[in-house]
Amino acid sequence: ATPPSNSASVPPSADRLAVTEPTINENGYLAAEGAPLGGTAAEEAMPPVDVVFVLGSPGSGKTTQCQMLAKHYGCQHFSPGELLRAEVQKETSLGTRISNMIRAGQIVPAQVTLDLLKSAMRTSQGPYLIDGFPRSVDSLETFERQCGKGTATIVFELQEEELTDRLLERGRTSGRTDDNAMTIQRRVQTFQMQSMPVVDVLVDQGNLHRIDASQPMDVVFTAARAVYEQYFPSL
């Protein structure tokens, strides 16, 4: 893939991403008076955006690497899960509805997650590292319709045995209840079923980069920096 020019990144199609006091409408979309985010207008193609999708199985260290890249380059790091939790903590009407859906065991509509990402991008300047997204081919296709194609994708790869060991160790030291053998196996299987088809699609776009996450953290970071600078050369 041809790296983009080293010009300042700007939020994509700011007018289309404008948000004021968003709520979930009956279709599960974020909407604000005069600024619908999930409607027909948002389905129109948008120019490519300075987005790097960062994928990897649980325990691959992708979030740590995103944090390190963001600190080193000053780029934006967005995690859909963190955006959802932040909205809940703000106790907005949207956050309350998200919380109620989670407590009821319902899946938060993918469009809600996407609209929170769009809102975050609207209020900041890229490049953007999107951590753990897209999780399905449908989410990828919707993102591309509404936001444009991503600039690149980084996939942190780790063998199942090693990532299981990592997560079990993390559970022992952090006390996280979701880091037990049964839950880990389920999370890995979910990733393989949902996210690997996304990887297959992105491979065909010619801008996907695989990094061996079993290496020492600094070695992995060096590899991640090399990919990042291929598309966003340092000034």
Short description:
This protein is of the alpha/beta class and 235 residues long.
Give the strand order, joined by hyphens, for the main sheet.
4-5-3-6-7
Count of helical segments? 10
> Low-confidence stretches at least 5 residues in length (pLDDT < 50)?
13-45
Helix content: 40-55%
Q: Secondary-structure element sequence?
A: HEEEHEHHHEHEHHHEH
Taken together, the total number of domains comes to: 1
User: On the 0-100 scale, what is the average pLDDT?
Assistant: 80
Q: How many E strands?
A: 7
Q: Give the overall form.
A: globular
Broad CATH class: Alpha Beta
CATH architecture: 3-Layer(aba) Sandwich
Main β-sheet description? 5 strands, parallel
CATH homologous superfamily placement? P-loop containing nucleotide triphosphate hydrolases
- Structural classification: alpha/beta
CATH names the topology as: Rossmann fold
Write down the Rg.
18 Å
The proportion of strand residues reads: 5-15%
Could you describe the 3D structure shown?
The chain is of the alpha/beta class and 235 residues long. It has a single domain, classed as P-loop containing nucleotide triphosphate hydrolases (Rossmann fold), CATH 3.40.50. It contains 10 helices and 7 strands. It has helices at residues 14-17, 62-73, 80-89, 93-103, 110-122, 137-147, 160-174, 181-194, 196-203, 217-231, and strands at residues 23-24, 30-31, 51-56, 76-78, 128-131, 152-157, 208-212. The protein has a 5-stranded parallel sheet with strand order 4-5-3-6-7, with helices on both faces. Strands 1-2 form a two-stranded antiparallel sheet. Strand 1 and strand 2 form a beta hairpin. Helix 3 crosses helix 5, helix 5 packs parallel to helix 6 and helix 7 crosses helix 8. The protein is globular. It starts with 13 loop residues before the first helix and ends with a helix. 34% of the residues are buried. It holds the Pfam family ADK. Residues 48-183 form the AAA+ ATPase domain.
